[in-house]
User: What shape does this take?
Amino acid sequence: MTTATALTTAARVADAVKVYGVGDTAVRALDGVSVAFPAGRFTAIMGPSGSGKSTLMHCAAGLDTLTSGAAWIGDTELGALDDRRLTLLRRDRVGFVFQSFNLVPTLTVEENIRLPLDLAGAAGEAEWIDALVDTVGLRDRLHHRPSQLSGGQQQRVAVARAFAGRPDVVFADEPTGNLDSRTGGEVLGLLAGTVRRTGRTVVMVTHDPVAAAHADEVVFLADGRLVDRMESPTADLVLDRMKAFEVPS
Ligand SMILES: Nc1ncnc2c1ncn2[C@@H]1O[C@H](COP(=O)(O)OP(=O)(O)OP(=O)(O)O)[C@@H](O)[C@H]1O
Assistant: This one.
């Protein structure tokens, strides 16, 4: 058997340019970024404020369109899809975790986790969902509503929901931004552990070197360009690399 999964790409962009606005007020948020996110890996996107992290994630995930260049989820080029197909791709092949949890308040924990499957009319794999519930440690909270949970528990529901449909890739945008450091660390451990145990793929935007250190690899953006990559990051190494971006006063 070959290690094919280590070589495949879950998502990528090539020569990605994103310009917001026109004329004098135009902002070139992405300025020719090419980057591949390998399947079965946890990749963090880091860079100074305004460097284009969220824009890259949104364009790679099909939440926004590129001005030029191309983006793929697996082998599917997003620019070739009409709106309906793009919506289906986001629903069926991409998972999302946001800073603000984004759970449906009227649904129970179990219903929130199953939501992507229910929207797709898919039964899902009972064993997979069951294992996810245990992974995120919510077995005794399945019938609670989000308002009855702590922030960390809500984000764990969001993590389980993101993986429920076995997506090609889970995109996480500052997933620990609303959590204290201990709870945030638990959520990051959960993301990293799920990648390692299940071979799923996570791409996370963060400005926090401690969060980035949970990833297998960090890609660094500056001024809309990919400027560096770091394998097996530690918080100190990431912090040092980030300091190099600071303009001396
Ligand atoms: N909808 C928009 N309209 C106009 N400009 C935008 C829009 N979204 C982002 N920008 C600009 O594009 C650039 C990149 O923004 P982006 O949010 O991708 O950066 P970021 O690295 O995620 O920043 P932060 O860490 O502060 O969240 C910034 O200059 C930002 O002001």
The chain has one domain: 40-65+78-243. DSSP finds nine helices and ten strands in the chain. Residues 40-65+78-243 form a domain with the Rossmann fold fold (CATH 3.40.50.300).
